[in-house]
Amino acid sequence: MAGRGKLLAVLGDEDTVTGFLLGGVGELDKHRKPNFLVVEKETSITEIEETFRPYDATKDSILRRAKGMFTAEDLR
Question: 47 by DSSP, 3-state: which?
């Protein structure tokens, strides 16, 4: 599993998810594209499924920053 990121999904009411977003779980890239999806009544199942498929841990800036904070020894 070394070198692979983990995908975190937060499912909850609007207040709970907003808390996670404010805590830094979600972000917008330089093109203002979010790395999260807010699901509403009108959101299609296809859109939800597609959101979970293209995740690339190498492009996740938060994951990259977190990896830089710890060494392999820290995680043992």
Answer: helix
CA distance 42 to 18: 19
pTM (2 d.p.): 0.49
For the chain, what are the domain ranges? 10-67
What is the spatial distance between Cα 7 and Cα 57, in angstroms, rounded to a whole number? 8
Domain 10-67 has CATH 1.20.140.150: no
Question: Cβ contacts of residue 68 below 8 Å, gap of 6+?
Answer: none
Residue pair 44/51 in contact (Cβ under 8 Å)? The answer is no
> How does pLDDT run across 24-64, given as a tens digit for each residue?
788 788 898 887 888 889 999 999 898 878 877 777 777 77
